[in-house]
């Protein structure tokens, strides 16, 4: 953590100036009831946070973080998040859990329940905690809106509107939503290039102005067909256009003398669309047995370019350009059938199967324009289609052994086939058993322990099967037809302690054994040696994660809450090129998140800040090494009020430090294993400070 960040955090922890005072909140002790592993938070508990929607309430539940599910793992089961609505999951991948909660006005919420351990009546699906939002009956028509205006570092305005409206329609309840807006952020890069001995020979700067426009309508329907049957449908569309204009200037460096050397210009437009729909049908056969059928369909496509990366001589003008055109079409269709059986109040069993068909078709075209002739550039695996057919059967069991112990166990077995056609052709079949077991122990109402063992299989990133280029970085990445998903065996233990009604601390220690770890490999083709995403062998990861939510009244700061997330990773893998042990590419050793909020109930005001920091990271490619530095991290500060017309008004500053991210690239003469350095690049990238005002309310 560097200078500005350290000064800020140290000032907060040691200076009472920030402890702006107001009368302490009252009555919170009567707003939380705990019984048998479930803590129930009444609406009054959240009053000091001035919530507008259920999302505001859930985000303030002590010791809980909303998760949309682990999208890095395969299957619809892993995509279910840690949220329940009236005891049931909003079981779909079409809408994020944040969107679902933003649609629920705070007046429609009867209470928020925090499920802290596995209970037969709740399907944890591997999560250590769930939140159950219990809605009051007969809520009727309701809506919410959120209007924002951002001013970027370049001075461009970025308006955004998020709105939803829920109304009964015959026997159903329908919700209509819209999320639309634009942003105009600008990236600024500063770069210097050095030879093998470290002498600077070139210096450059560029301004990359971007504009993103998005239109995302959504629709949901809930229909209680009868006392035993329920139908839910969700649909969402997302249409976007992304435009950028980049100018760069490079100088030759000789001692203290700078000489104009080259100008670069490129301009492009990316446009695309995503359509997603989910259908979920639930039927109770009797008091013990129920069925659920779930169908998901997603279609996405995007086109980028053609984009000409033009080079100019400062005197003579245009010299040459690289022209890039790319696009992709993705499809996902999945069907899941589940049978649930609750034979008694201590056991819950689930059986079922799932089938999914996924595909991605990618095209990439490169050409060079020398001012006279446009010549195509051949890049392997530039035109390809990848298709996956995957089936899975599963069985899960939750056993409430007694009032203190519960046991979750499960077994899934996956069968899949991956076929690739086009520039690379190959068909492969895989089978993966995925067992899991979790033991929960509640020593008393304040302390809980959780021990887990499981095997996971990562989701396939179909983009790794196709080639891509980054002309600005002078990088080509080859598609790898031999790429396989990494598999992980995990042992994990967690201790959670709750203090007071609003305090929570948890400590999690885990160890991961990874087979076929994701990384970078070298692929030799007739046209050259390329980096490609691939599997670099087996690796390990020891990780420790701490979460703290604590009121600060003991420090003399009334009505203030601090959330702390701190995670440490100790990763290890044997480098396939050098044979030496090293950390994983892209994984940072430390991650820190802080969230502070102080409310002033009598003044109807609040202020706060959030801070995010990562330690340095490394990327090991076949012919280069990268070192990434997050510098001072990211600090955002806001102030808000609810004094006017029941509307929550907020003013916010993002990226207060505005120091950007640093990157060092070390290029090697041939393989990185040779250790012979060919050159070094240094670059700082910053998006700049931005300002935002917003207003939100319900109706």
Model description:
The protein has a single domain (169-698), classed as Maltoporin, Chain A (Beta Barrel). It has four helices and 38 strands. It has a 22-stranded antiparallel β-barrel. β11 (229-254) and β12 form a beta hairpin. Residues 11-20 have low confidence and may be disordered.
Which tags fit this structure?
Maltoporin, Chain A; globular; five-stranded mixed sheet; 4% helix; 64% strand; 38 strands; 699 residues; mainly beta; single chain
- Quickly count the helices: 4
Shape: globular
The CATH superfamily title: TonB-dependent receptor, beta-barrel domain
Question: Average pLDDT value?
Answer: 89
Largest sheet: 22 strands, antiparallel, barrel
CATH fold-level label? Maltoporin, Chain A
| CATH C-level name | Mainly Beta
Percent helix: under 10%
Question: How many domains comprise the coordinates?
Answer: 1
User: What radius of gyration results from the CA coordinates?
Assistant: 27 Å
Number of beta-strand segments: 38
List the helices and strands and how they pair.
Elements: H1 3-14, E1 32-35, E2 38-41, H2 54-58, H3 76-79, E3 83-85, H4 97-102, E4 109-115, E5 130-135, E6 142-151, E7 157-169, E8 172-183, E9 186-195, E10 200-224, E11 229-254, E12 257-284, E13 289-313, E14 317-344, E15 347-369, E16 374-377, E17 383-400, E18 405-422, E19 426-442, E20 447-457, E21 468-470, E22 475-477, E23 487-499, E24 503-515, E25 518-525, E26 528-535, E27 539-551, E28 560-574, E29 581-582, E30 590-600, E31 605-614, E32 617-620, E33 624-629, E34 634-644, E35 647-654, E36 661-668, E37 677-686, E38 690-698
Parallel strand pairs: 3-5
Antiparallel strand pairs: 1-2, 2-4, 4-5, 6-7, 6-38, 7-8, 8-10, 9-10, 9-37, 10-11, 11-12, 12-13, 13-14, 14-15, 15-16, 15-17, 17-18, 18-19, 19-20, 20-23, 21-22, 23-24, 24-27, 25-26, 27-28, 28-29, 28-30, 30-31, 31-34, 32-33, 33-36, 34-35, 35-38, 36-37
